[in-house]
Amino acid sequence: MSDDNPHSSRGSAGKTWLERIASIFSAEPQDISDLEDIISEAASRELIDSDTKSMLQGVLDVSKMRARDIMVPRSQMATIDIEQPVSAFLPILLENNHSRYPVVNEDKDHVEGILLVKDLLQFALDPNQTDWHIKDFLRPAVIIPESKRVDALLKEFRQKRYHMAIVVDEYGGVSGLVTIEDILEQIVGEIEDEHDDEEDNDIKKMASRVFQVSALTPLDEFNESFNTQFDEEDADTIGGIVLHAFGHMPERGESIQLGDLTFKVSKANSRRLLQLQVIRAKESALTEDVGS
Question: Is the pTM value of this prediction over 0.70?
Answer without folding.
Answer: no
